[in-house]
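Blinded run. Sample ID left blank on purpose so nobody reads anything into the name before looking at the predicted structure. Input follows.
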Amino acid sequence: MITEPSLVRGLVAAQFPHWADLPVVAADARGTANAIYRLGADKAVRLPRTEGSAADVALEHRWLPLLASQLPFPVPLPLAQGAPAEEFPRPWSVCTWLDGTNPAPGDGTSASEPLAADLAEFVLALRRVDPADAPPAYRSESLSSRDTATRKALAALDGVLDQASVTAAWNEALAAPPFTDPPAWVHGDLQPGNVLTADRRLTAVIDFGCTGLADPAVDLIAAWYLLTAGARETFRTAVGADDASWARGRGWALSIALLELAHYRETNPVMAEIAAHVIDEILGKGPEGARD
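Blinded prediction complete.
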């Protein structure tokens, strides 16, 4: 569904007339789940692109206020929940606008040890949130249950990737001891489009559509999606990841990146570039050249 500022202005005027005079500007967002518009100086309008992301509106309105009160970095606070309308037949939301820049794969930010420490602080704080009544995360399944889909994605990338090296990395991840402890809160999608930075530090974490309870190793994907080798070790030490969880985290990052690269290679160059960068980092082909 194509969206534009005039659509947002109409929705806001009809449902939240006290904000009708605020300017609406399309945001330069990389995400595939929502179209983002800035509303005035301090608000954002999120229009779900798919039915799946539309279901996230209620999830975020229910849980983000609770999470925000216990996290060390800002997250978007829901301000209003828009109802489906004739011109946009899905629920939508208004939340706080947070300043910062999405890091780009391989830029200087990815080598920042302070950013690595910030990410670890965020992940650990999220794990400490009381799990009572919390929903399962979008990625709450076991890593092994993704085997068929991951190998299918890899096969679709024949001639694009080193099949033997990627298969070996995936088999190594599957050989890690499985997660058997009670699940904990995870963000579920800590990659460049969902974090904001400034001066190589974390300023905010956004887009909690995947949040819920899961194996905490899911959030270790940040090590390969957001960091290069040296900062990755800082993150691992700060987050206290043992060998098994680190191996599962690498496997999660690899599986997600393979599915993204296979899906977006012809349609979304930004997402495809990020996924290819993650795979290179996992295989030790990134700027610092050392696999961990």
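Unblinding after everyone has recorded impressions. The chain has ten helices and nine strands.
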